[in-house]
């Protein structure tokens, strides 16, 4: 899933792409590679499904109420 892009002068934009999976009540974002607090790469993040869906609903409501 592409979650962000940044247009660059080069022909192709830079993209942030992650893999999203559901295992039971856990949402897993993988294929990440950003530095964590200790400098080691974070490659996977897990969320509780209830918390994840609540944030998706909150973000959708904020976008829906935002004027274009």
Summed over residues and divided by their number, the pLDDT gives a mean of: 83
State the end-to-end CA separation.
24 Å
The outline comes out as extended
Decide which structural class fits the backbone.
alpha+beta
Unreliable stretches covering 5 or more consecutive residues:
none
Radius of gyration, in Å, reads 15 Å
Helix proportion = 25-40%
Tell me the major beta sheet.
3 strands, antiparallel
Fraction of residues in β-strands: over 45%
> How many strands appear in the DSSP assignment?
5
Total helical elements: 1
Strand order of the largest sheet: 3-4-5
Q: SSE order, as H and E? A: EEEEEH
Q: What does this protein structure show overall?
A:
The chain is of the alpha+beta class. Helix content is 25%, strand content 47%. The chain has a three-stranded antiparallel sheet with strand order 3-4-5. It has a two-stranded antiparallel ribbon with strand order 1-2.
């Amino acid at each position: 899933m592409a979650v962000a892009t940044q247009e660059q002068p080069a022909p192709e934009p830079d993209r942030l792409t992650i893999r999203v999976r559901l295992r039971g009540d856990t949402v897993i974002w993988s294929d990440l590679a950003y530095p964590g607090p200790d400098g080691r790469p974070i490659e996977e993040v897990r969320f509780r499904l209830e918390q994840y869906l609540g944030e998706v609903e909150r973000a959708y409501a904020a976008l829906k109420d935002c004027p274009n």
